[in-house]
Fold:
Amino acid sequence: MLRELADVIAEPLSIIFERSWRTGEVPKDWRKANVTLVFKKGKKEYPGNYRPVSVTSIPGKKIEQLILKVISKQMEEKNVIRSSQYGFTKGKSGLTNMIAFYGGRTGWEGEGRAVDVVYLNFSKAFDTVSHDIFIGELRKCGLEE
Structure:
């Protein structure tokens, strides 16, 4: 729909984007989100097997993308992110992190150095749904506890 109305809404959106950029404020409607639960794995009856997804407005998402682009460019130009950063870094993943780690560990062991490894799994802390939110969503769908 936005593409079909691009000629009509381009100028008002650019004014809103510019004002938002100057003031540091985003329109209230663009900050609102509908939280939807998405099933991950396991039994569907268990609330911990769902993750919340925030559905926000398209103009809000576009301004987020613009801001992210500017911040990312600034961080890249100023060399803010170290080469050892893998999480949330474009072109790097958990797999590339593991490959780099394994290469370093192998080298340290080859030199006779002691190597200790600690693995932390934060998925339980960040990828779960509050029971109250889950029950509220089930009630909206007409399902019982």
User: Anything to note?
Assistant: The two ends are 38 Å apart (CA to CA). Strands lie at 34-39, 50-55. The chain is about 50% helix and 10% strand.
